[in-house]
Amino acid sequence: MRTFLVIYILISFFNNLSGQVIILQEKKPSQEVSHFLTYLEDKTSKLTIDEITQPKFENKFQKSKQDVFNVGVSASTFWIKVTVQNISPQIRDWLLYS
Fold first, then answer.
1. 62-63 and 38-42 strand pairing
2. I want to staple 98 with a disulfide (CB 3.0 to 4.6 A). Which of 34, 50, 64, 80 is the partner?
């Protein structure tokens, strides 16, 4: 069975479980996110985005403790959540990486 990694990015002004917000700045076009992200392992690979955004799943996300987020080989789906705040006056693309 193939491993699926689904990235779920919430753009919000509120803190996620890790209590940290990624601040996008005009002078910094990329941002490492491993220490900012939380994740949820879906062992059934059947959860939907509508389900995982429900309040009952909020406390099931775990803070990443890795320098580079890596789940290895798994049949699970991993939902990734980061909170981002854009303080740049311009609309532009940013590279978020782990």
1. antiparallel
2. 34
